[in-house]
Design a protein that fits this description.
single chain, about 325 residues, mainly alpha, Farnesyl Diphosphate Synthase, two-stranded antiparallel sheet, globular, magnesium
């Protein structure tokens, strides 16, 4: 997915996988550490830890060993949030496999997630000492905002309507600040200026918004063979995704009644529920509208990256990554 760089022959993904594979967890308690090993073994796209390295690489930092601990910390934190989010969402699958709480139970998943967060801070302590205060400032800010975003997401479940602006702010906090923070942490280790770090963070933040909008789109319109999660899962649980929000604001009075009846359908009617909701999506051209919004934030990301004062050649990998994320099938 990501090409070679000044860091050497192995690509960034392989380097991070190697670092994760070399981490030693205690043998026991088994029910604390085995779930951690399990979630890390599911081998997601490793986007966030790669962004840490890309953030450093952009500014010419050539010592990958100084960057890897921060990359691992970001990966640990991300997987900690996945474990806990899956509990809250009652999700059965993660990356095509059983979620931790499904494979063990909620109590085990909560505690294993907590331990993984502590392990993230343990990794940050291994970074060059001169950068640790700035790294912690960025990491803690992002971590708290992710929690705020998750709470907003849960709050949305109990309100009748969510505006497009409210939704975008929620996914900015829940998803995109971590991408921006990962890039900024790499830039910190590369000793980039505050102005350059901010532009890189803005690139990551806007890319993250577009990334989540694409995830919403794939949930309804993705290929079940490649998506890794249940297609239509958001529809089944009446999740207020961008598709749901864009549809609701366009509905006629008659279709509003149909929409309301679809929301009331039970889990035993899930296939029919998905089909009927997608019919409304198609009737109101919701997919095109969601794609247009995704493209807007993608272009905002590209603009921020273009403004960073380094040679264009050094930006190629970030542009390529952005293109890959925005037009992915899973």
């Amino acid at each position: 997915m990501i090409t070679k760089s000044v860091f050497g022959n192995a690509d960034f993904s392989d380097k991070i996988s190697e670092a994760l594979g070399n981490v030693q967890f205690p043998d026991g308690p088994t029910n604390l550490y085995q779930p951690i090993k399990y979630i890390l073994s599911l081998a997601g796209k490793r986007i966030r830890p790669q962004l840490v390295i890309l953030g450093a690489d952009l500014f010419g930092h050539s010592n990958i060993e100084e960057v890897v601990p921060a990359s691992v910390a970001i990966e640990y934190f991300h997987n900690f949030t996945l474990i806990h989010d899956d509990i809250m969402d009652k999700a059965p699958l993660r990356r095509g496999q059983e979620t931790v709480h499904q494979k063990w139970n909620d109590d085990v998943a909560i505690l294993s997630g907590d331990a993984l967060l502590i392990k993230a801070y343990e990794q940050l302590a291994k970074c060059p000492a001169v950068f640790v205060p700035s790294l912690l400032t960025t990491f803690n800010k992002v971590a708290l905002e992710v929690c705020e975003g998750q709470q907003m997401d849960m709050d949305f479940e109990t309100v009748e309507s969510v505006s497009e602006e409210e939704y975008v702010n929620m996914i900015r906090l829940k998803t995109s600040v971590l991408l921006g923070g990962a890039l900024e942490m790499g830039a910190i280790i590369a000793a980039a200026t505050s102005e350059q770090r901010n532009k890189l963070y803005n690139f990551g933040e806007n890319l993250g918004i577009a990334f989540q909008l694409q995830d919403d789109i794939l949930d309804a319109f993705g290929d079940p063979a490649t998506f890794g999660k249940q297609i239509g899962g958001d529809i089944i649980v009446n999740k207020k995704t961008i598709l749901h929000i864009l549809l609701k604001q366009e509905l006629s009075a008659t279709d509003s009644e149909i929409f309301a009846s679809i929301l009331k359908m039970t889990s035993s009617e899930s296939s029919e529920k998905i089909a009927q909701m997608k019919e409304l999506y198609e009737k109101y051209d919701v997919l095109s509208k969601a794609n247009a919004l995704k493209e807007y934030y993608t272009q905002c990301a590209y603009t921020s990256l273009g403004q960073i004062d380094v040679e264009d050649k050094r930006k190629e990998e970030l542009f390529s990554l952005a293109d890959h994320l925005m037009y992915r099938a899973r």
